[in-house]
Amino acid sequence: MAESFPIEASGLNHFFGEGEARKQAIFDLNLNIERGSLTILMGPSGSGKTTVLTLMGCLREVQDGSVRLLGQELNGANEAQLVSLRRRLGFIFQAHNLHESLTAAQNVLMGLQVHGNANPAKQRAAADHVLDLVGLADRRTYLPGNLSGGQKQRVAVARALVSNPDIVFADEPTAALDKESGHTVVQMLKTLGQTRQTTTVMVTHDNRILEMADRIITLEDGRVVSDRVPKTTP
Amino acid sequence: MSRLLTYLFGRLPIGWLQLSHNKARLVAAVSGVSFATLLVFMQLGIMGALNSSTVAPYGLLSADIVISSEEGNTLTDAGEIARARMFQALGVPGVADATPLYIGNLPFTLDNGSTVSLLSFGFDVSQPEFVSPSIAASFASLTIENTVILDRDTRGMPASVIDALMAGGRYEFEANGNTLVAVGTMNIGGGFLADGMLAMSDQTFLRSFPARTSSAPNHILLNVDDGVSVDTVVERLRDALPSANVKVLAADASAQADLDFMSSERPTGIIFGFGVFMGILVGLVIVYQVLSTDVADHLGEYATFKAMGYGQPFFLGIVFEEAIVLAVFGFIPGLIVSIGLYAGLRAVTGLPVEMDASRAILVFLGTLTACTISGAIATRRLAAADPADLF
Fold it and tell me: Between chains, do A59 and B390 touch, taking CB under 8 Å as contact?
């Protein structure tokens, strides 16, 4: 299975609510995502794209069908398996979700310490290095309250990337950013895919970044309605 | 601080950083814990003073066994016992010697018109081996009719009188229609029992308390022969004496029985016990309130950490870290203020309110336990941190 896809979903259905109010959100989804690719999930709100993202990211329990993430079946996986799987993922949220009491560097460090802390000095160096990459070398000791929205989002990106995740899940990472910062963030994710074979799945409405994707999947009412490669792929 | 904790925990001290980030909450929480600690210290301090008051008179004595009337409550709140028991007891093998002890409350009117009561001990002054050496030295002077030794801490007694006595002077006063002469001082510290204490000969005692007779003392003190077990002699005495109206106890067991009586049967002990309970409850509620609010405020961050792969032990660690920080930071000011208030209480009331190391350690461990329990309850809110809500 060495050549398998990092994410394989087949026959995936998902429901919200109970009894009379039970409503199906995802219908028989089949999706394989290639290693090292940047995939964008699009669709109107309520189309189920975020649900797909949380199902693939081990954040929501798989009810029906199968999701194989990095070779591990998520349907029926126990909490310990999910936790250890999550440690191989990176998450970037629409809201940056930085811890307000921790400095930029400490927030990034949290992305590493989840793997233990045998070598604190090395971890600090790694955290500083990633902050350099996102252009925040001079903001290491700033608390999130003293950073701009774009800077906070870049810290969140650094936190997601610092542990070299196999897969990065991003939910509207550029929504709070201006065009240039948004472009920088996505370019970083794309470069990462090319150099480290990191797979990125991103939910976005942002038309400004579509041309950077390797693949664009559009959902509507819980079904895939279009799966295409953007015209202007470099 | 942060660096020290990082070293201790082997990870970022998130609990500490979280608490110290919100200074107002930290101050409120720490003062709450300090206040609860203070409450507990004050209750324990007064309870400790009550206890040491209760057993203070035992410090006057040097006896192995105390025989008392079954109807008495404590050493100083005792019934009367027939002196004939003393002669019976002397016949029991292992008993070396015996002496009667008379105890009574002598009302005394101070120069300012207020009446105080002096707890008076009447000893057989020909047997100084039954009292502690500090009093025994004065027994020679007590053989003179109507002479007494006065407690240094007698409430309302002018300091000049005590100073004069300690310098070798005399102080003449009238009590119960009898003129007494204080010829020395002693230091017992029985603040709760009476306003002051007197030691005197049994003859002076009987003259001061005309209603009492020499044939009915309050206690009989015994010493056992060298090399004989006190417990063995206590058993023999219980067999030899009628059990219906006499209790025989080793001196330390008698002191313990007095303590038990004061803490469980007298309202004072129950009141202070209740005070301690209330203090602990206040602390628990404050810490719970602070920690659970703190957890609720950080649910978003915790959910993010969960998504990143942090498990439940990590979050419990944060909450317990906060609980320990609050315990330590709350205890220290509580302890310092308590030591100050103890000194104030001692100065104002003359009660033996003392801070001892064992009490400080006990209260610290209690604070730690209470904070940890509060933390454990507060962690129930962690379940609400659901990473799926983040998107």
Answer: yes
